[in-house]
Amino acid sequence: MYILNDPSLLSTWSHRAWVACGCTMVLVSLAKSIIGVANSHIWLEPILAGLVGYVLADLGSGIYHWGIDNYGSALTPIVGAQIEAFQGYNKWPWTITRRQFANNLHVVARVVTFMVLPIDVVCDDPIVHGLVAVCSGSIMFCQQFHAWAHSTKSQLPPVVVALQDLGILVSRSQHAAHHWKPYNNNHCIASGVWNGFLDKHKVFEALEMLFLKQGVRPKSWSEPTSEWTEETESSRKR
Fold this sequence. Notes:
Blueprint: H1 13-40, H2 44-70, H3 80-91, H4 101-122, H5 126-149, H6 158-166, H7 172-176, H8 195-200, H9 203-213, H10 233-237
């Protein structure tokens, strides 16, 4: 259960260190792309690679979000804590706006650090780094984009509202549909550009059928109970 001022929502120095490491890896990759462009005078391909990276980041965020929303538990190895946080967040979605910045990003920042570090060391290709920098940076910050999608317009900086309205960041209205019955759509949380395609073609439902054949039923197929459905912040204060 989450309460206001819950210590589990606060950032620690460990969280901040991991976010700093992740940001460093992303910035090194971006710098190598920019330096490579300056030296080789090719600029179109790295820009296109960056756009592809952003689109892939949105797809990846949706697949991961769908997976941990529907499968596993706090006891799942490696990602159990994040599964517990996401499935608890479905009941108390407002908590994501109360998580401090590094607390919200540190888990993904660890993954980004270890995945991008070897690429930074061995690769100098500006096209590769254009893809890696934008994709990894977007993946690392998608939880912040997600938190903004749960905030009211008055709480957000004007530039964030503008980016949401332009579809560059996942919008508040689009992500709100994720928390309405039947709780099985709009999983992508970077830009949300994949949500229409994935939901229209029932991609996640097809994947759920594959899991069902193995005897594993997704949580979104079950009739929501008080242990899973959304509880508003105001109801927690009563």
